[in-house]
Design brief:
By secondary structure, the protein is mostly helical. The chain has 16 helices and no strands. It has one domain: Cytochrome C Oxidase, Chain A, CATH 1.20.210.10.
């Protein structure tokens, strides 16, 4: 039997380490630190996406579809191989940046993720394969695989054009787009639809089909929003804008699907509140992407990195992490005391406000207030503190949760 609660604790451990690395990065601007800032950034970003989010999502997916499937040995081999690659990245990136061993471990992670995608797509029991939830999960996994084109391309770009080439940044943005807007979002939606299906709540086939294809079209066209900083031909602005509009219409359709079922969903009030908060954060994400399709806003965003950093953290810490905490709690893989969540959420709002504030005053050529970097660094401490408290609470809770969904 696989104790998925332990796997959840491992994911929370990565979340805690990501938070510590984030605090470490912000203290670079407060006190002298004898380390390479860019190297730590690489470690922070890799463990955030591939440690916390990836492990949490795959743990939830395994719990959904494999509670009685009997493929534990295959899953465990992939899972523990993945942990080797993550630990390898964690101990090499901060000291070497992109170098031989860090590249080897990140490459091995990509291979491990292909095996995980194969495992879920191939071994999911047939009764689940015709469900709406699996259609979303399947699409998300394919987007995860597609996103890996970016890291593969980076090696070739660095070897031929160097890291100052626009193709270097485009490779990174390609990867981030299909991670954030496709793999993460579609997987989270798939998990939510699974919970609906468990309660025999299903939208009409044509309604779901329209939502699904709007969302996929938005994912593909939305990538063009990530190229607008190069000031390309006007057609790219049109395609990117169309992607942003389709993304909004897709979630309007999603809202229309959920609203009739909302009161009938047998979820706790706190779980519904968490989903509502994630939904509000998502609305701001969609509006920011729509604005970025307008040339003036696109140039503004990419001229001031704080806006991009703020946006990425808004999605990662807001939409994705809050949803993951809610889903892990609902499946009893995580004990989520309300006070710890509110501590986390307050830190999230505080740090995001400070990041967007810096972008705004830099744009307006105004001075930062005196203790800005110190306040940002100290505010950031509460993010890993929240993760540590969740991890400690989960470890000390004696009850175990296996692959079987209660």
């Amino acid at each position: 039997m696989i104790d998925l609660k332990k796997h959840t604790n491992i994911a929370l451990g990565y979340f805690f380490l990501v938070g510590l690395l984030g605090v470490f990065l912000r203290f670079f601007f407060v006190i002298p630190i004898p380390a390479n800032f860019r190297y730590v950034v690489h470690s922070h970003s890799h463990i955030a996406l591939l440690g916390w989010v990836y492990i949490a999502l795959t743990t939830l997916i395994y719990k959904m579809y494999f509670s009685e499937a009997g493929f534990g040995k295959i899953y465990k081999r992939i899972f523990w191989f993945t942990q080797i690659t993550l630990v390898g990245m964690l101990v090499t990136f901060p000291f070497t940046g992109y170098a031989l061993f860090s590249i080897i471990f990140s490459t091995l992670f990509l291979i491990a993720s292909y095996f995980m995608a194969w495992f879920i797509l191939k071994k999911t029991p047939p009764p689940f394969k015709n469900t709406y939830s699996f259609k979303l999960i399947r699409a998300s996994l394919w987007y995860m695989v597609i996103s890996s084109i970016g890291p593969w391309a980076i090696g070739g770009v660095m070897a031929t054009l160097g890291n100052t080439s626009i193709w270097y940044k485009l490779s990174i943005y390609f990867y981030l787009h299909f991670q954030y807007n496709a793999w993460f979002i579609l997987a989270l939606l798939g998990i939510f639809f699974y919970f609906m299906e468990q309660q025999n709540l299903k939208p009409q086939k044509e309604v779901f089909k329209s939502f699904f294809w709007h969302l996929n079209a938005a994912v593909v066209l939305g990538f063009f929003l990530s190229v607008l900083w190069t000031k390309p031909h006007w057609i790219y602005y049109v395609l990117g804008g169309l992607g942003a509009i389709l993304q909004i219409t897709a979630f309007v359709k999603f809202w229309k699907i959920v609203i009739p079922f909302w009161k009938r969903l047998r979820f706790s009030p706190f779980f519904k509140l968490l989903l509502s908060i994630a939904g509000i954060v998502l609305i701001f994400k969609l509006l920011l992407q729509l604005l970025s399709a307008i040339p003036w806003f696109a140039n503004l965003a990419f001229s001031f990195p704080d806006f991009v950093i703020g946006y990425l953290h808004w999605v990662f810490l807001g939409v994705v992490t809050i949803s993951l905490l809610a889903f892990l709690s609902h499946t009893r893989l995580l004990q989520l005391p309300k006070w710890i969540f509110w501590l986390y959420f307050a830190a999230f709002l505080m740090t995001e406000t400070l990041i967007f504030y810096k972008g705004t005053v830099t744009w307006l050529e105004l001075p930062l207030f005196g203790d800005y970097f110190r306040l940002l660094a100290y505010s950031s401490i509460f993010l890993p503190l929240s993760a540590f408290l969740l991890l400690l609470r989960n470890i000390l809770t004696k009850s175990q949760t296996s692959a079987k969904l209660d």
